[in-house]
Amino acid sequence: MERFRIRSDMRQNQKCLAARAIAHVGRVRFGLIALSAGALAGCGANGISGMHGTGVAEVANQSPQEASANLASLSDVVSRNPRSSEAYDTRGVAYAKLGKYSEAISDFSQAIKLDPNNAPAYTNRALAYRQSNRNDAALADFNRAIEVNPRHAPAYLGRANLLRVQGNLDEAKSDLDQAIKLNPENAQAFHARGLIYQREGNQPQAITDFDNAIDRDPFAGAPYLARGQSLIATGKYDKAIEDFNAALHVDNKNPDAWAGLGLAYEKSGNRTKAAESYQRALTFDPSNGLAKEGSSRVGRG
User: Fold this and answer.
1) What DSSP character marks residue 9?
2) How far apart are CA 116 and CA 192, in angstroms?
């Protein structure tokens, strides 16, 4: 998942008030968006300082009343600091996390109007454009973010993911190389680059990148799923089974993880567990192609 970003140079009183509101807005499980832990740094009075993107509430569990209260707090920051680019950027992140992309884009645009060199605001607006299927506008904003700050790693990551889904693998890989150079601890960049190597058939390099992603963020499920797929491709079925199980520990309703587990069991000769896994995948996604094909091969085991 890519992250909406918030500038770290926001004045302390603005940042702490916004952080308390955003901490309740929390993470999102859809699309590409997750809360940037950097937005919460420096507000240690409530134990916020030192968080690394964990411990925040799920949007799915948040009432409309709570969401409105959080936005009201952020709107208060904006009203008291109407010339603050960072205040609009922060509220835009909160809107985006609630799926209100039009409002988010409006706030990011105002942040950019107030500070045309606000690279995080360009990156955030690009991510919101992507969620709105406005990829041309997103690419233009990623380009502009890099233009105003060539060391802004999230813009390279965001642009790379857009280029990757568009099939521009060489350009995407170049951007990911730069993102990793600028921020060697970015698990998402290693995961994204691993997906490119995987697509190119370079499974050993893909596995190395997935290893690096997992080392940096062992609680994300996607790199385990991806590594399991590459391990199957290299004939390491027992290790693949471990990875698919790890992905299922993160999300036990992931049909792709169940289908991958089924294939790993099938390849290792355990048709009974393969059949069970394929059926679990089809329970969550009846149209899952891998599970349908596998189930037809192994039957009831």
Assistant:
1) T
2) 29
pLDDT in tens, 210-269: 999 999 999 999 999 999 999 999 999 999 999 999 999 999 999 999 999 999 999 999
Neighbouring CB atoms inside 10 A of 202's CB total 15
**Which neighbouring-strand residues pair with 27?**
58
Cβ count near 199 (within 10 Å): 12
- pLDDT of the residue at 91: 93
Residue 219, token pair as written in the block: 């609680």
pLDDT at 53: 26
**For residue 97, what pLDDT band results from cuts at 50, 70 and 90?**
confident
User: How far, CA to CA in Å, does 234 sit from each of 97, 102, 230, 238?
Assistant: 38, 45, 6, 11
Pairwise CA distance, residues 71 & 61, whole Å: 16
Residue corresponding to tokens 């955003």: 22
Which alpha helices (H) appear in 26-118, and where do they start and end? 64-80, 85-97, 101-114
What's the CA dihedral at 37, 39, 44, 49 to 10 degrees? 20
- What is the token pair recorded at 156? 């390279």
